[in-house]
Amino acid sequence: MQKEVLERSNGNCEICGASGKVSVIQVEPFQGIGADEYAALCDTCASQYAGTAESNSSHWRCLNDAMWSEVPAVKVIAYRMLNRLKSEGWPQDLLDMFYADDEVMAWAKAGVRDENTPVHTDSNGVELQNGDTVVLIKDLDVKGANFTAKRGTAVRNIKLVHDNHEHIEGKVNGQGIVILTKYVKK
């Protein structure tokens, strides 16, 4: 797939058009549609889309062109970034013009969080994800077990409790426990 995507993009970022080093990423949730679910992104687009770097709204002005791409994965990324940046004002205008067929639009919306959906956040307000490692910020008596989880204990590979945004699951001393998010930090 990587070779096919790089040929399609001519080695350029399919979002901003930057030439040079690009990475081929698969856009989740996976659709099983081959190369059309992959996009070639420069480091700037890839890191900001993944959320590992702060979004620079001026960089994303390129979405004005990218949103009209014939490549479904590129349209999905454009839609999701426009939604993420819509508080800036100008992205809302582009969202009003955005067009995609029903399947691509459903795919794009599957990766956009509803503003009314609660988010799991740690004691500092940092968003938590499945698989994160957190540290306890206070001693916690573990109900049903005969030990206290000490402050500073790392809890690796947490799982979010989907029906309660204030709870996560993890293992401490080999024991699976439920922890309140207000007692952890990422």
Descriptive notes:
This protein has 186 residues and is an alpha+beta fold. It folds into 2 domains: 2-110, no CATH class; 134-185, SH3 Domains (SH3 type barrels). 27% of the residues lie in helices and 19% in strands. The strands form 4 sheets. Strands 6-3-10 form a 3-stranded antiparallel β-sheet, with no helix packed on it. The protein has a 3-stranded antiparallel β-sheet with strand order 7-8-9, with no helix packed on it. Helix 4 (72-85) packs antiparallel against helix 5 and helix 4 (72-85) packs across helix 6. It starts with a helix and ends with a strand.
Label this structure with key terms.
single chain; 186 residues; alpha+beta; SH3 type barrels; 10 strands; elongated
Structural class: alpha+beta
Order of strands side by side in the largest beta sheet? 6-3-10
Number of helices: 6
Oligomer: single chain
How many separate domains make up the residues? 2
Instruction: Give the mean pLDDT.
Output: 90
Low-pLDDT regions: none
Helix content: 25-40%
C-alpha end-to-end distance: 35 Å
Please tell me what the overall shape is: elongated
Largest sheet: 3 strands, antiparallel
Strand proportion: 15-25%
Order of helices and strands: HEEHHHHHEEEEEEEE
